[in-house]
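Reposting from the mailing list since nobody answered there.

I have sequence plus structure tokens for a pair of proteins and want to know whether others read the tokens the same way I do. The first protein:
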Amino acid sequence: MNPLRTLLDSSIGQDHVDMHLAFLANPDGALSLGIGKTWLVQFPPNPGVYCIYLGNELVYAGETGSLKGRMRDLLDTRNHTFRRQFGSVQFGTHHSYQAASSRTKFPDEIEVLLTDFMLKQLKVKAVPVTLGRKEIEERLIDDVKPRYNIKGKRGEVLNASVL
């Protein structure tokens, strides 16, 4: 199964939303995270919705203006909130741990461990969506409650335990 799905209907009807929800909520066909152009070529520069899985658990849902750009961002601590949260949870007790931000990465040792862990353990699935991507993301968050999504509608904090 291709991890990408073409937009069959440009309208924002319920069938359109439900079709994408069913596809994204199921980890079947998700791709292991990768590095480089060979991996990134699988994602279009189009807007869309993506999901990150740890095993079969959907742990994060997001929407973006560029799927290709966002997939590149997953491995840069400064560019993705999920990576910072995930790194803090996975390596927060490590002896060299220092919190990261949108301006600073984790210490080098943590960055290497985090990237290695993410490449081995995480999978991603994405679907290009022109209209309704925020609605699809919000429905996934409401229905599945991924543990690393901390913001809901209009900035509402959902899961303060991962902050």
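The second protein, same order (residues first, tokens after):
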Amino acid sequence: MRILLNSIKSTSLYRLFKNFEQDTRKKIKAASLKRKLNKAPPVLIYQMGKVASSSIHHSLKKQYSGAVAHAHHIGSSNWASQLFYEWFNRGQTIKIISPVRDPIGYNISAFFHNFEIITGTPYSQNKLTTDESIQLFLDKVDHDIPLNWFDINIKKYFNVDIYSDTSLDGDAKEYHHNNVSILVFRIDIDDIKKEKAIQDFLDLPNFKLHNRNISSEKIYNKSYSEFKNRLKLPSTYLKKMEESKFFNHFYSKQEIAKILSKWSD
């Protein structure tokens, strides 16, 4: 039966129907989003990834009357982000929620999440030792992604320089420029504080956050914990993080020192 199913899936007719189904589903979702654009300012959860953004997206879709989308980049490969960006470029109001996390924590999480992309092998087939995984992490990951994300994405597309303002002081901060408003907060604050920040930002007093995509439920959870327990980072790596404007904008000197000490020899 499985052989027959695989044989059917390999046919051009099956692929044609599959592409048609996906294209139809995309058009239905796009039409639904477009209908909501005028109900309330559209909200784009737009961030670097691995910052619990799926929970915010899932929760807002159920509780916010306007259009809500989720993206890590702007471009045609993400049709929802393109739709929202075109809306913004027409001078219409848009709201962006962009959570952040410490750059080392992000890089580790992204490494496991993108393991198959990096190695070409599904994590379920991973045979690397922890030490080999650590070396792969050091050699193959672009560790500058979190450091440069706001310049490459927010500043480039929305003309807002997050770093030109004062450092994040408190649990969350709003940035406003012409027809875009941006809410930034760290993911390590309490969910109650995240809810309060989103409630104020969107004038949505009853907003509640429902968590999903929990890392403890991932197939790699055990290896992930072992990796973090064993990982020690080179002093040059830690120094680069310590001096980065990203780290210094969102974290105090004391917080940075505490985070770095966890990964130092």
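Reply #1 (J.P.):
I read it the same way you do. The longest helix spans residues 12-36.
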